[in-house]
Write a sequence for this structure.
């Protein structure tokens, strides 16, 4: 598995988006744990979670507790280089939009609760999940700065942010913003400007739903599309099957040295397939077709 960096921390070029393991339609606990273990076995060292990845019956933090259990069940030597990135600022609500909770007090409390659920001395990467329109953005980011200064978190990032918010966050954090997590995929490219900004300023860009999200990637990867055609070409040229999803992740990696896709997975087979994307080599002509 090839590596990239978040801040000064080397991590795998592909991460695991753990959200599908805890939301509606999630797998049973055994398969969820097996999916995390498969990611580790494939060389993945970045796991993305959030306190809001849950269902109402379980309350806030189901996914964080699940990740902690999965890591605890492996040897310390096999998990010592794993970076768990979590997020705060949203409150889960079944069947409706998540409530925003971006006040400094709410974020400070949420981070401490995440710290306990993850069973760590400090959270490796903590990100503001989404701006709260009722709270000045600089106040929410100020809470991240306080968390850094108190040692509750080791690195700070933001999610669902535009370029002005990225600039503001980095300014409030005194140049210590290490990551931006926005939606980006072959079918959803509206964050391309934010991606380019992060690459130019050495900020990790973590595309969420990099394959289009649950049930939304079919059209992009169907037979006859550029991603399916390139996958067929690569499969024919090697002894291994290359999936259109691997091609999509490899294309995203080609967009910049700070881009780290975090595909979601609810089966071991899915994340094992995604992990192989970091080794794919795409030609300039193939990249041009995929970018068109």
């Amino acid at each position: 598995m090839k590596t990239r960096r978040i801040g000064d921390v080397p991590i795998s070029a592909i991460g695991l988006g753990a959200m599908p393991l805890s939301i509606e339609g999630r797998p049973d606990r055994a398969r969820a744990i097996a999916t995390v273990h498969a990611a580790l076995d494939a060389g993945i060292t970045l796991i993305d979670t959030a306190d809001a990845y849950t269902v109402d019956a379980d309350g806030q933090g189901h996914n964080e507790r699940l990740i902690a259990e999965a890591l605890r069940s492996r040897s310390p030597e096999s998990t010592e280089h794993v970076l768990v990135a979590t997020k705060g600022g949203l409150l889960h609500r079944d069947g409706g939009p998540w409530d925003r909770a971006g006040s400094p007090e709410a974020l400070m409390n949420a981070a401490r609760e995440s710290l306990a659920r993850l069973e760590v001395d400090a959270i490796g990467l903590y990100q503001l999940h989404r701006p709260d329109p009722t709270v000045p953005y600089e106040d929410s980011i100020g809470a991240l700065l306080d968390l850094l200064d108190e040692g509750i978190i080791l690195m700070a990032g933001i999610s669902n942010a535009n370029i002005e918010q990225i600039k503001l966050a980095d300014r409030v954090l005194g140049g210590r913003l290490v990551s931006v997590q926005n939606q980006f995929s072959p079918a959803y490219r509206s964050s391309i400007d934010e991606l380019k900004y992060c690459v130019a300023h050495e900020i990790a860009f973590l595309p969420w739903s990099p394959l289009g999200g649950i049930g939304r990637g079919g059209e992009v990867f169907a037979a006859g599309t550029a991603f399916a055609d390139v996958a067929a070409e690569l499969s024919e040229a090697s002894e291994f099957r290359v999936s259109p999803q691997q091609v999509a992740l490899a294309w995203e990696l080609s967009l910049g040295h700070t881009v780290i896709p975090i595909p979601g997975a609810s089966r071991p087979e899915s994340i094992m397939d995604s992990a192989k994307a970091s080794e794919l080599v795409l030609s300039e002509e193939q990249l041009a077709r995929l970018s068109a």
The chain is about 40% helix and 15% strand.
